[in-house]
């Protein structure tokens, strides 16, 4: 599903125009991003939890040359689904 498909589905389910549903989706995505940057964690009860976690530096290999390289530490966003979402997907 693409963002355009999601906007169309949101517009249909919420009886909104596509423009309004796209604004709502963009506002939601911006809010999630701002919360993760400031607080590092966002919990949507029943849906799941987004959390920023630190990934340690590690050694890896260049797939083309086989040469060993150092992969630096970085922050990544992880998602853990909630019970309601897990049960719906089963």
Mean pLDDT: 95
Give the class-level CATH name of the largest domain: Few Secondary Structures
Number of separate structural domains: 2
Give the second-level CATH assignment, the architecture of the largest domain: Irregular
The total count of strands amounts to 5
Number of helices: 3
Low-confidence stretches: none
What would the CATH topology of the largest domain be? HU Protein, Chain A
**Order of helix and strand elements from N to C terminus:** HHEEEEEH
Kindly describe this structure.
The protein is α+β, with helices and mostly antiparallel strands. 44% of the residues lie in helices and 31% in strands. Strand 3 and strand 4 form a beta hairpin. The mean pLDDT is 95.
What labels describe this entry?
alpha+beta; DNA condensation; 90 residues; structural constituent of chromatin; 5 strands; 3 helices; HU Protein, Chain A; DNA-binding; 2 domains; two-stranded antiparallel ribbon
């Amino acid at each position: 599903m693409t963002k355009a498909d999601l906007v169309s589905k949101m517009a249909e389910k919420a009886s909104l125009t596509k423009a309004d549903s796209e604004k709502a989706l963009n506002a939601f995505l911006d809010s999630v991003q701002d919360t993760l940057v400031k607080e590092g964690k966002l919990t949507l009860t029943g849906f799941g939890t987004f959390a920023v976690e630190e990934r340690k530096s590690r050694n890896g290999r260049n797939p083309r040359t086989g040469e060993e390289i150092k992969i630096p530490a970085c922050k990544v966003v992880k998602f853990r689904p909630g019970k309601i979402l897990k049960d719906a997907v089963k």
